[in-house]
Amino acid sequence: MNITRAWEILKDNGYKKTDKRELILNMFEDTDKYLTARDLLSVLKKDFPGMSFDTIYRNLATFVNLGILEETELNGERNFRMHCESEHHHHHFICMECGKVKEISVCPMEMIQEKLPDCAIESHKFEIYGKCQNCVHETV
């Protein structure tokens, strides 16, 4: 997702362009890592001293509901990143050290579907967590 497309989606759904939304989206556009509300708050408080977690979470929830951001839970905390622009089905490897995300084009659902023959799977999410090559070599 690029920021231009994000603004189109927001506009099409009746949301106005605000300075806070713009700063939040810019932070996501500038990284390929997952960010937390705490990450956003530490930066946004500089320009908006009265900024609260409620405001951030409201905007994040809107962005997730509109498909602008995707969400995952890491270490018990909600993390967000720009929605993938990739046209093909894929999953992610997430480095727990630096936060970098790598696309994985393999999907285990065929194997899992065989184990659940009488079930109707409606959706799935598959993520792998660990340390990327750079982080593995830094700790050696």
How would you sum up this structure, described in words?
It contains six helices and six strands; from the N terminus they run ααβααββββαβα. The chain has helices at 3-12, 19-29, 37-47, 53-65, 109-115, 133-138, and strands spanning 35-36, 69-74, 77-82, 91-95, 101-104, 127-130. Strand 4 and strand 5 (101-104) form a beta hairpin. Helix 3 (37-47) packs across helix 4 (53-65). The termini are far apart. The model has no long low-confidence stretch (mean pLDDT 90). It comes from Lysinibacillus halotolerans. Its cofactor is Mn(2+); Fe(2+); Zn(2+).
Brief rundown of the structure:
Helices cover 41% and strands 19% of the residues. The chain has helices at 3-12, 19-29, 37-47, 53-65, 109-115, 133-138, and strands at 35-36, 69-74, 77-82, 91-95, 101-104, 127-130. Zn(2+) binds at residues 95, 98, 132, 135.
Profile the largest sheet: 3 strands, antiparallel
**What is the share of helical residues?**
40-55%
Give the termini separation.
35 Å
CATH superfamily of the largest domain: Winged helix-like DNA-binding domain superfamily/Winged helix DNA-binding domain
Number of helices: 6
Q: What is the global morphology?
A: globular
- Spans where pLDDT lies below 50 across 5 or more residues: none
Structural Rg: 17 Å
- CATH first level of the largest domain: which class? Mainly Alpha
% residues in beta strands: 15-25%
How many distinct beta strands? 6
CATH architectural group of the largest domain: Orthogonal Bundle
| Helix and strand element order | HHEHHEEEEHEH
| Helix/strand structural class | alpha+beta
Strand order of the largest sheet: 1-3-2
Overall average pLDDT:
90
Family: Belongs to the Fur family.
Protein name: Transcriptional repressor
GO molecular function, one term: transcription cis-regulatory region binding
Pfam family, one: FUR
